[in-house]
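Much of our argument rests on the idea that a fold can be written as discrete symbols. This step matters because it turns folding into a mapping between discrete strings. The record that follows shows the chain in one-letter code together with its fold in token form.
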Amino acid sequence: MKGDKKVSMAVIQRLPRYYRYLGDLIDNGIERISSKELSVRMGITASQIRQDLNNFGSFGQQGYGYNVQWLYEEIGSILGLDRSYTLILIGAGNFGQALAGYPYFAKRGYNFTALFDNDTEIIGKTVGGASVFDVAKLPQYLQEHHVDIAVLTLPGYVAQQAAGVLANSGIKGIWNFSGIDLRVPSSMIVENVRLTDSLMTLSYMINEDEILERVSVD
């Protein structure tokens, strides 16, 4: 990364999209691509692509463009995909089991090692190769195993309690689906995923013309 420049969150959030598009190019046998050609595929400007990538170094060559395989690997390294991560999941209901069983995660190095729940009908099951344990055993598990990321698919009213247990475990990140803002030490990073927010954004866009017309009338 260039110097001590802090990269904006907007740029960071675009990196997985670059990675995905470059992966598709590799699958289609494309070895190099210009920023202009990539911009047409992605629907963003070539200038934006160059600005984004320049945050992390010099990747393209004048008159040649980008080496697709190399850029794919470099962005993967920036995203931390050149290593593997151990994950646990707390809240192994239907949604939690669907996440843990999704094969894409393991292909990208995100490996679920254990799930936790308080439902006796779920405890003892195996999901995606990981066992479901009684949530009461979570503190002991954290003492005995290294965990990089905890995934919370719990109701909001118990998610904070779970976060409190995780706070003293050395876990660096929480992927939070609980719908509440967690109070955690500054050393922990929380990535909030609010599915209803995304859905409400979609519903706004569907009804945007009607909404703007109503506002103009008022």
